[in-house]
């Protein structure tokens, strides 16, 4: 049976056949790290695999919500990966807590109203007023300062007169102490703060392995012949800055337009391998 008219028309058409990619549904096959590839479960998603291994697949907060699991699964996930559980419980530090204020009393706190069932008591303070009768400052403020934004610098705003009256002696600040981050190891090599998964321990042992000596860059015979031509023409295997600038502008012998710094690095390797001027120009 011959080809149909529709098939012939499709073959003559310049529009390509649209193929829907199904790459998002393909199982992931990690090949970057042998430890992760050995413990990878193809039946789970990337986020589920990283959470089970004690890793984080992204540093930002999860967008679109967090996967809701049972109580036992949540406790198991929290014990296995504390870092991911801390990210899921994101709290806004700039949120003002209005639970202790009543909007019906024009913002008056519940502790200041008479008859409210609270442990805070009403106290008297001395205030300083200006000529119009407005309160300028509180002289003896025993109550805590209202700090809805939880600003840590709010407690440090004290005048010099209050420091002299109270007679407080402050120690000199010596900088931040070196604190060990969660999941890190001390100098003795012991785990700190929480128990890690075996995969994380294996990855840290791999990362702490000493790195071998740095190998010099290999130069091919063609590159050495090109550098030898430059050195023979300009008459020096260790040129100065002016000569390197002229080498960089030489479009005949420097066809690939290597920069002066690039030529300096290549000539340093050329000299370390015994390169020198072989003939005069």
TrEMBL record:
Component of the pre-66S ribosomal particle. Residues 1-32, 73-93 are annotated as: Disordered. It comes from the Eukaryota. This is Nucleolar protein 16. GO terms for biological process: ribosomal large subunit biogenesis. It is found in: Nucleus, Nucleolus. Belongs to the NOP16 family. Involved in the biogenesis of the 60S ribosomal subunit. Keywords: Nucleus, Ribonucleoprotein. Residues 1-13 have a biased composition (Basic residues). It holds the Pfam family Nop16. One of its GO terms (cellular component) is nucleolus. PANTHER family: HSPC111 PROTEIN-RELATED (PTHR13243), NUCLEOLAR PROTEIN 16 (PTHR13243:SF1). InterPro entries: Ribosome_biogenesis_Nop16.
